[in-house]
Design a protein that fits this description.
It is a single chain. The protein is an alpha/beta fold. It folds into 2 domains: 110 residues, no CATH class; 248 residues, Rossmann fold, CATH 3.40.50. The longest helix is centred in the first third of the chain and has 33 residues. The N and C termini lie far apart (75 Å). InterPro entries: SGNH. One of its GO terms (molecular function) is acyltransferase activity. Keywords: Acyltransferase, Membrane, Transferase, Transmembrane, Transmembrane helix.
Length: 386
């Protein structure tokens, strides 16, 4: 082993290692930008290694070595600082240029999203599909894992701020709308992801949206999950005291490997809220898939990454039938978007050139926002008036 490491090839590679380190990343990013890809394949990887070694060799010979072994530079009082500055410039400048190109590419793609990434509009009949057949699906690979549906505007204040410290810490709100017009979204992260489907509708009609989300805690007042029961009891008391125009939550749930069911205790919750004169907007749960669609698409085709709904969903009446739980002047408004996640009984990873899922259990905010017209239609059909 010592003989191998001391050999001329590896010794020479060691001499140029810093140069290879500096150039490999800009070369990789350039390749991905040119190919509009999220990672390099095996052949591209080998070519990239060869180019990095060659470029690193040239950088070492014509930039690094002349600076390191320059007699004139050695006599300068600030030689060390100069060498460091040059090294940083050589390493950082290409990366900044590449990042700037990436930012411009992202801005260009997003600017054309209305035409090239219609999402659910292709199912709603308001779009025939992307105008540019080469436009990449959005969110882009580097953004998809961050495409959460949370409200980032403001921490809750004034009458919207819960007195319970744990609820207050999780409470977020949009800019204040018209007096008396408030909708509260409560539940787990799957409820959070659906906020985008009605947020633009609410804001356009002068409503404030308040969200109080706890990951792993559906609005289930019978749960035995640690921390969830006390949370949900406090949350119910907050909702009754606040008396919003509506509470939005998932009223059915799909657990891993199980068939869709009603969220436990949801009938009593609907009764309590509607009995207090509060409307409940109940979303049927989104699919829970056996694998991560974006990761699947790295290796397989869209068809191979499609999941049939067989055995996943119950009857539609499972959600619609909750209207029988209404006990007062409040109303129940069921929302069923199954056909927009799984058209024709097939949960496809991309619809209208938009990634439907950010992982196996969460739809992307980008796709969910394109379903807003259908949510508006279903709300109107159930008697909701903005």
């Amino acid at each position: 082993m010592d003989h191998l490491l001391a050999g001329r090839p590896l010794s020479k590679l060691g001499d140029m290692s810093y140069g290879v380190y500096l150039v490999h990343w800009p070369l990789l990013i350039t390749l991905l930008v040119v190919q509009d890809a999220s990672r390099a394949g095996a052949i591209e990887g080998l070519i990239l290694i060869a180019l990095s070694v060659r470029a690193g060799s040239l950088l070492t010979r014509y930039v690094d070595a002349p600076i390191r072994f320059s007699r004139s530079l050695a006599l300068l009082p600030g030689r060390a600082v100069l060498v460091i500055a040059l090294a940083v410039a050589v390493g950082v400048t290409p990366s900044l240029l590449i990042q700037s190109a990436l930012d411009r590419q992202t801005a260009r793609i997003l600017a054309g999203a209305a035409l090239n990434n219609p999402g659910a509009a292709v199912l709603l009949g308001s779009s025939s599909g992307p105008q540019d057949p080469d436009a990449p699906p959005i969110p882009l690979p580097e953004d998809i894992k961050w495409d959460w549906g949370n409200i980032d505007d403001l921490s809750c204040k004034g009458p919207y701020k819960p007195t319970d410290p744990s609820l207050a810490a999780a409470c977020r709100q949009t800019a204040t709308g018209e007096p008396g017009k408030v909708i509260v979204a409560v539940g787990n992260s799957r409820t959070q992801q659906m906020i985008g489907s009605y947020l633009p509708l609410a804001e356009a009609n002068g409503y404030t949206i308040v969200s109080i989300i706890k990951s792993g805690c559906p609005l289930d007042t019978t749960t035995t999950w640690e921390g969830c029961l006390d949370w949900n009891v406090e949350l119910r008391d907050y909702l009754v005291a606040l008396h919003p125009a509506a509470v939005v939550t998932n009223t059915t749930q799909i657990d891993p490997g199980q068939r869709e069911k009603r969220t436990p205790g949801v009938e009593g919750l609907i009764g309590d809220l509607t009995g207090a004169g509060i409307a409940v907007i109940g979303f049927r749960d989104a699919p829970r898939l056996p694998w991560d669609p974006p990761a699947c698409l790295h290796e397989r085709s869209e068809e191979q990454c499609t999941v049939p709904t067989r055995g996943m969903f119950g009857e539609a009446e499972l959600n619609r039938g909750l209207a029988s739980s209404v006990r007062g002047s409040g109303a129940f408004h069921p929302i069923d978007l199954t056909d927009y996640f799984c058209p024709g009984g097939e949960c496809v990873p991309i619809i209208g050139n938009v990634h439907v899922y950010m992982d196996a259990v969460h739809p992307t905010r980008t796709y969910v926002r394109t379903i807003a017209p259908e949510v508006d239609r279903q709300l109107s059909s159930s008697g909701w008036r903005w």
